[in-house]
Structures are given as structure tokens and as C-alpha cells.
Amino acid sequence: MLERVFIWVAVGINLIFAVSGAGQEEQWLQYHFERDAYRTVGYMGNATPAVVSDKPQDIKLPDFKTGAPLFGRWVTPMVKAGGLWMAFDRTSKLGQYDLLYIDSNGNGSLADETAITPYEQNRNETMFGPVKLLFEGEDGPITYHIQVRFYKDEKRAYLYIWPAGWYEGTVTVAGTKKHCLLIDHNVNRTFNDKSLDFDECDRIKIGQKDDNKEPRFVGNFVEVDGVLYRPEIARDGACVKIASTEDVVFGNFRVPQIISEFAAGGENGLFELKPENGLGKLPVGKYRVEHWTIERKDETGNNWKLEGGLFGSAGIFDVGTEKDAELSVGEPVASTLEVSDTGSGYYFTQGLAGRQGERVQLTCNDSRAPAPKLHIKSKDGKYDRTFTFEYG
Predict the structure, then answer these.
(1) pTM for the complete prediction?
(2) What pLDDT was estimated at residue 84?
């Protein structure tokens, strides 16, 4: 299933973006943390630092219990070195890597750290957290928590880091109190990252605390109750400002008229629109296509939907004021088949791809169509079998 996180700002091309008179005073939020924070705040990104066996230079190391520690470096701009080292050790040579050392105070040393033990262990992995880290801020120490998963088998090792902390609280927008949530989606201990890369921008939600709306991309704009605002988010996430949008400049883009829904994002945020006759508008800037949708009904009334997303490095376009941006998205859609030799057999992967290589999903009445079948028959007819693909 394609991950979709939208900023609900524009529908059609005639929507008027209202001007807000909200002030620009700092509004403070509270820091929270818990294990498996995603269960409380929703989907959160992760970092995957490389795991190496070479000991890092210019950093003091503890006395390891075994002679084969492994290392990873978590990238964060909150320290001058640009990242924090961590080391994984094990209590016995034949056991799992069940000890974690991390430079929790950013002083360039692991020698003054106490080993952290896991809260959960499986056959090839150990889970640590929430792991507390302290950073120096302008007004004193700043706390942050991460969740660490370390995987190691006979051939490879992986390291995954998730945020375990977030900010939330009550803010006032146009005289009305709203619940505000900030998520460090790209896991680098800053909460105001904007990016054309959707994985590298943070998340914000302003509305009702218990509604079902997904957090939106942190960007130059955010929508609250149908009004467009400019958010200013403190780097450490502790406070926000909500400013008006009198100076927004828009440009047009065009897609094939068959496109019923279109979403694009960048440093301005993420916008979902319903173009009218293929025409839509966005604040001037650079965007990447997030998804497109085509819907049709067949002769029996079934509603079929094609949805393209996960464009990767493709789908980038500029919106300006001098001419409309022309976008080649939608049909035709190609069926793809990939075959790989596993040594003991062959592995087949079937899918749908759009005009720019994006993944396409086909549904009927909001349910996936039945998985396709694969018929393999040898030239002499001795081998004749039909297989059914499975959704993975």
C-alpha cells in the first residue's frame, strides 16, 4: 500500500486562500516520549546508519567485553561533529549483540557511558530504548529519546533508529485553541526540516487532538480550518509561531484531463488537489509529484481506480508565474514482470508502472483487484503449471 500523508489545502483552482490576522508570538509545546511512540502519534520515519567493524577515530572507547564490537554513527546537526557514535558489544562471544554504548552527552567519548541493555531480544535482533540523549541548547540542555533496533546474522548487520520523543500542546490560531503535534520524521533531533525529499521533511498537525487526520509535511505553509498560514517552528521543536499569508504568489500547472486527483509536495508543504479540466494551482516553488489518481466506472457500476505514487527521484517540476507547468502523468500504465534466479529456483515479481516509473496500484470499489496468475509451459509441454501471485 502506498503511504500517503497530505496537507489539505487546495481543492480545485478557484479556492480563495484567506488571510489570517493571527499573531506571531511564540507558542510553547511540551516534550513527550515513550517506547513505540508511533502507537501514540502515528507513522514516524527511521534512520538506517551503516554498521562498520572499524573503530572510529578520535573518539574514546570503553573496555569492551569481547573483541568484535560493531559501530554506527547517527547523524544529527545538534552536535558540532555532525553526529553521535554508538557501539554494540555482547556479553559473550557466542551470544547476541546485547550491549549498546552511545555518546549520550555529545562529548566525543563512549568511555564515560554506561552500557544499555535491551528490553527485547529475538533470534537475530535486539531492541533498546527509549535511549535518552542530551544536547546543548541556547537556553540549556535539550532532551531527546530514540528507539534502537540492531539486527545481526551470519552475513550482515543492520541498524535502525526511530524517534521516541515528540512535542505537542495547545496553540491559538485566529483566536481558537487548537492541538498542535510535531514529529521529527527524519530522526535527526530537529523538528523544522523542509525538503523536496518526502522522507527528509518533518511532520506537523494542527487541529483536534482526537481526529483521524494524518500529520502533514512541515513546509512554508500549513492549513487550519480552510485558511493558509505560515508556520515558524523552533529548531528544537519547543515552540511555534503562526503567521498570516498575505504575500502568497500562485502559479498554474496542467495534467491530463482524466486525472481526478493530484498531490505534490516540496518545501512549501504537501498539497492535494482536484484539477478542473486538467488545470490546478500551487504556491510558486519546486515540487515532486506525490500521487495521481484516475477513476472510472464500468458498465456494471463498479468504480475502478488507478493510483500512481512512489516516484523516487522522478516527478520533479517547477511552478512559476510566467507559464503553466506541463506534467506527464497518468496513462498509459505498463505491466512489469521481474525474474530473479535465487539459486534454488526463480522468483517472479509482477507490478504496474506509470509513465515516469512510479508504482501504480489498481483497486475496484476500494479493494485490490485479484492477484494475477502466471502460466509457465515448457516448449515440449512436459512442464505446464499455473501460479497465483500474492500481495506482499
Answers:
(1) 0.83
(2) 96
> d(Cα 391, Cα 339) in Å, to the nearest integer?
16
> Among candidates 4, 13, 10, 12, which has minimal Cα distance to 289?
4
Give the whole-angstrom CA distance, residue 390 versus residue 186.
Answer: 31
Let me know the angle formed at the C-alpha of 206 by 211 and 186, rounded to the nearest 5 degrees: 100
Tell me the C-alpha distance between 214 and 169, whole Å. Answer: 17
Q: What is the pLDDT of residue 392?
A: 61
Closest to 66 measured CA to CA, from 45, 86, 89, 83: 89
- The parts of the chain modelled with pLDDT lower than 70 are 1-23, 392
Write down the residue that cell numbers 528544537 correspond to.
Answer: 236
Cell of 389: 501471485
Spatial separation of the C-alpha atoms in residues 33 and 145, rounded to whole Å: 7
The span from the first CA to the last CA of the chain, in angstroms, equals 9
C-beta separation of 158 from 48 below 8 A: yes
Q: Which amino acid does the sequence have at 72?
A: G
Instruction: State the Cα–Cα distance between residues 89 and 189, nearest whole angstrom.
Output: 25
- Classified as helix, coil or strand, 303 is strand
CA atoms within 13 A on the CB side of 241: 12
Name the nearest CA neighbour of 188 among 59, 50, 45, 313.
45
C-alpha cell recorded at residue 253: 500547472
Three-class SS of residue 382?
A: coil
- Across 318-352, b (16+ Cβ under 10 Å) vs e yields ebeeeeebebebbeebeeeeeeeeeeeeeeeeeeb
Q: Convert the pLDDT of each residue in 324-378 to its tens digit.
A: 999 999 999 998 888 888 888 888 888 899 999 999 999 999 998 778 888 889 9
Separation of alpha carbons 254 and 273, rounded Å? 12
Q: Which of 302, 320, 317 is nearest to 369 (CA)?
A: 302
Q: Which residues pair with 101 in a beta bridge?
A: 87
Q: Taking Cα atoms as reference points, which of 136, 128, 131 lies closest to residue 81?
A: 136
Residue carrying the nine cell digits 484567506: 18
